[in-house]
Amino acid sequence: MKEWIPFEDATYMTERAFVVAPDQSAAALQQAYITVYTGKGGKRYLKGGAQVRNILLVELLEENEDLDLILDLGGEFKYRLATPKINAGKVFAADVTSSLTFSPTAPWHQIPEPEFDALLNQLKVL
User: Fold this and answer.
1) Taking CA 21 as the corner, what is the angle to CA 109 and CA 6, rounded to the nearest 5 degrees?
2) Residue 113, phi then psi, degrees to nearest 5
3) Would you say residue 114 lies in a domain?
4) Rounded CA gap, 103 and 109, in Å?
5) Strands of the sheet with 10-13, listed across from one edge
6) By C-alpha distance, which of 67, 70, 109 is closest to 88?
7) Would residue 126 count as lying in a domain?
8) Does 16 fall in a domain?
């Protein structure tokens, strides 16, 4: 991936984050963050994590194979990660929350604030 990460090496908390299916159904993530780090050759990488109610993730995956992530890092820093690699716990109790990790499979797309607000209004949050 080309240099597409505009942040220095650090961990950044999101203001809001969602896992989103193609039909706009979504699950909110809690305590979501991204970590930016520099690898070999000075190339910058990104990974992240969050807490999620697993049953909501299971509901999204029952109807959809590909899920996107919407990340609001505050201000103009709003992004969509298309079909990232997502790993989550395997607990299916309705009230259990567990860790979820993600890593991009392609560069993210920045979303202008007006479009981001419109996108949030279209989400069907489970």
Assistant:
1) 20
2) -55, -45
3) yes
4) 14
5) 10-13, 30-38, 44-53, 97-103, 85-88
6) 67
7) no
8) yes
Q: What is the pLDDT of residues 30-56, one digit of tens each?
A: 999 999 999 988 889 999 999 998 888
| Host H or E run for residue 119 | helix 113-122
Structural domain contains residue 96? yes
CA 87 – CA 100 distance, rounded (Å): 6
69-83 pLDDT, tens digit each? 999 999 999 999 999
Give me the domain span that covers residue 96.
10-120
- List the strands of the sheet with 124-125, edge to edge: 109-110, 78-81, 68-72, 16-20, 25-28, 124-125
* 57: pLDDT strictly greater than 90: no
Q: Name the residue type at position 107.
A: P
When the pLDDT of each residue in the chain is averaged and rounded to a whole number, the result is 90
Helices (H) and strands (E) in the chain, counts: 2, 11
